[in-house]
Specification:
Number of domains: 1
Structural class: alpha+beta
Radius of gyration: 15 Å
Number of helices: 6
Distance between the termini: 29 Å
Largest sheet: 4 strands, mixed
Strand order of the largest sheet: 3-6-7-8
Order of helices and strands: EEHHEEEEEHHEHHE
Helix content: 40-55%
Shape: globular
Length: about 150
């Protein structure tokens, strides 16, 4: 399930996309893993360093904030949403928004991507990721306001 590059376009294989075409959007752990795996392949093929996965973020007092999908030690974070799963449940949507806002308030650079972005527009994911990673590299973030576990 590796993306490949043709000119300035990157493509995800049809097996990964097919896994997401079940009714109800992201309905299984297997589908979530396919989304995360494919997104990681996109950024890896684009030359970004390998991130850590499913990293838990805590504030300076040890309170749990969020679990990231991908995390780079410079303070850059990816969050992937299987749109139907995350956005069809109001309470989940609100939790996601609060967690991401809290991570940003702690100084982390957080980018969010949907399954459509990953599978149908990987060039957008890569371009946004390069920009976000670069911002995190240039930003003097306050790592004393958060920690990972």
């Amino acid at each position: 399930m590796r993306p490949h590059v043709q000119g300035d376009r990157m493509h995800i294989d049809q097996q990964s996309i097919g896994l997401f075409r079940s009714q109800g959007g992201v309905a299984s752990r297997e589908q979530l893993l396919a989304l995360n795996y494919s997104a990681r392949q996109v950024v890896g093929a684009g030359g970004l360093p390998r991130p850590q996965h499913e990293v838990k973020i805590f504030d300076r007092w040890g309170k749990f904030v969020a679990q990231t999908d991908s995390f780079w030690p410079n303070g850059y974070v990816h969050m992937y949403d299987g749109f139907d799963y995350h956005r069809s449940r109001r309470a989940q949507t609100e939790r996601d928004m609060e967690q991401r806002a809290t991570m940003r308030s702690l100084g982390l650079i957080v980018d969010e991507f949907s399954s459509r972005h990953v599978f149908y527009d990987p060039a957008y994911v890569l371009g946004t990721s390069r920009e976000g990673y670069s911002r995190a590299q240039q930003t003097s973030f306050a790592s004393d306001s958060w920690n990972i576990g």
